[in-house]
Design a protein that fits this description.
Length: 702
Amino acid sequence: MIIVIAAGLLYACFLSPTKIALVNFPSYQVSNIILSNDNRFIKVEEVGPDKASGLKNYDAILIFGPGLRLTPEQIKNIEAGGKKGAMVYTFVFASDIVKNNRVDSLQQEKLDTYYSNRCKENFRNMLHYVRQEFDPKKLTANRAEAPVLIPSDILYYLDENKYFTTAGELTEHLIRKGVYKKEAPRIAFLSGMTSPLEGNRIYIDSLISGFEKQGYNVFPISAITKRLELLKEVDPDAVIYLPMGRLEGDRAVKWLAEKNIPLFCPYPVMQSHDEWLNDPRGQIGGFLTARIVLPELDGGICPLPISTQNQHSNHYYVFDPEPERVGNFIANVDHYMQLKIKPNKDKKIAICYFKGTGQSSLVATGLEVVPSLYAFLKRLQSEGYSVEGLPASENEFEKLLYRKGNLFGNYAEGEIADFLKNGDPLWIKKSEYEQWAHEIILPDQYREVVEKYGEAPGTFMTGTAGDEPALAVACLRFGNVAVFPQPKAALDGDDFKIVHGAGVAPPHSYLAPYLWAQKGFKADAFIHFGTHGSLEFTPGKQTALSKKDWPDCLMGAMPHFYYYTISNVGEGIIAKRRLHAALVSYLTPPFMESDTRRQFDELLQQIERYHSAPENRQNAVSLKIKSIAVKMGIHKDIQLNGDLSLPYSAEDVSYIENFAEEVANEKMTGRLYTLGTPYSKEDILSTTIAISADPLAYSIAT
């Protein structure tokens, strides 16, 4: 018995494992640290709030400082562990809640050096160091090697243990491996959050390998202080940035613009696969800001998710690439890059405009659509695009649009019948349509369409092509350019609500032109012309879209440009995020001087008299103000009483004055903007005065 007890004491004092608790570390980093451990005498565990009571039983407690929010039970048990002799240390940010314990300044420096130079080797030696320095059970302690110092700005490749300090070094490495392609386009791939040397990077490697298979030379970069310098050294044709904040401020934006380099911003999702698919919000909170909002300031496009974070059978969290999303993103980038290479005469462009039903005008906020669209087609023609058959005049073009590019309500049976017979529609056979739907739309999503609208081709805008049922699409073809109106996103209901989100699966007639653009026409680029359509409001997530979300599904991997008014930032952002659109802004209509102030001259004069009148005269002036206000109907607008026998109070007079000034100073727009037609000098002057008035007034007032 004595021998057994002695053996137990010997084991407990000299041979038992060092138990290390990880608190508040990101799940992916917990996995990286644990998987780097090669010592069976070191046991590393993540300890969350649900296991707080066990914290007092660990030999070392390592805490991740950023975003630290500890429960009272966690704090109590960490303090209890410290009193029992546990080492306690917080990385990155020191904590005001929990104090470090048994760690001197030299040890802190060593721990920070291991952690800040994140790689498998340093994580492994950091664990060895904790056992060696802070646990008396040293008979089986591995000697901790000195930290490997990794430069803050490196290039890397598929080998986790190798890095390079210049683009030339990486190029030589790629040549030796036989993967460098002379004269091939170069992609700079910048990771923005995790260190590429610490592991858990299958999703990164899948992108590197995927682009290499597409024929690109890929230069992966991990940089903190010299991002722009390394980017310039690579001299890329495109930049892919896995964002965590902005790329490199405005100087990077300037460089990208000068070099005409597109910036693509995919990102990993910090949710499991199922959570991501089923969360209607997509990215929220800090991740929305860091991964989507801030990169938008740099001009980033294609904000597409590429991976999810999942717990594997070993209970560790790993960033798993989402194969369909990775493939979609690679195709998006490749199609954009092909636009730089392909001759204009061979590029196929699909253009979707917006229009009401029947003889309603083409619509877009603040834009003269027909002359602008015609001017755009003429510009394409002058740039060498194939636009054969474009009418010689804008007037002829407009007539053709209303004859062949019309839109119909489901009630207009006679007009539809005439159009199907004489309007030369694009006919999409049932077999073609269903094949494209099978390739593009997920089965559950297509089932929703069939359940609501019946089997294809449905009952709206249908006929036969040959002997087969078919869908008719209003579409004008000018050489390699196809122009069509966006169909209604639902077949019944209020038009405004339909445009801003019908909340149901779109009908066959809506899906058909988008499927045709992808599979039948094979568009090299897709353009939504004007502000705004309904596709960005069809059902699905707000951000981090998947293929099951209608906006992403129907745009596919086509490069997408949206000609959008500069005055509607809010809804433009929706189009950018849900349709991965590159927004091209057009000007607002010019502002013109308003005559509204003259209507308020008499009222404002009386208000000025009121302010300067002695107190015993103010009631009389107030009654005159009230008489004018009631005559103009202002009292109803701002809900004041209209009894002409009772004067307004000083507060009421001030309320009327503010209302009158606001209306009198309201900005008015003149004619709509037309693409290619510059403002006149008079328009520039009146617009400048209008948009400068408020800032000047506020600056003087303050």
